[in-house]
User: Fold this.
Amino acid sequence: MNIKTYILNMPQRLERREAIAREFLGRRIFDVEFCEPVHHVNPRISHWLTMQRLAERAMAQQRPCFLFCEDDHIFTEAYSDQLLTSCIREADTLGADLLLGSVSWMLSPIQIRQSLFWLESFNGTQFVIVFNRFYERIVNFHLHANDTVTEMNLVALSHGNIFTIHPFISVQQEFGYSDVTPRNGQKGYVEGLFRNTQRELYCLDKVKMFYAGLQ
Assistant:
């Protein structure tokens, strides 16, 4: 599998570019391309417009999927090429619109496969596989003043086909500041969000395994 990978990076954020380049060094299943975000005074709107531009490009190139990756992504110890590719194939057979490497917040997680949880809603777009069945809905979405959060736009556009990989294969690296909200720049805050959601999915997985053993 060769995964087209678009990494969002602002030219002045050299430390982020160097960090994310190290993450993908030697990982041959990723076809990496650095992309400067679409300029807008509102970072959240810039984020969404960039997602739209990349979906339009992937649609024109008839790609089965692409990876939307932010430059603060880091791989976890759980990551492997085999885990990611098998989850992509499973999610695709389930009709997924999105496959997430992790989430910092989630609503109504339901375990569908051993390594896949269905989600009603989520936060966290640092590592997102976008499938071709979803391209047109993203591209044709007309942004309104209140539609500034990419995750909420994606949830609204999806037909309930959003999944996350478990255990998480991606988390966010803290650089000491945030492009979106000041609170996300507080040391330890973002890491804590991912730990909490990971713990919740771990508990759900253990409960399912326990009761499966009683059948």
Q: What stands out?
A: The first helix runs from residue 14 to 24. Residues 175 and 185 are 8 Å apart (CA to CA).
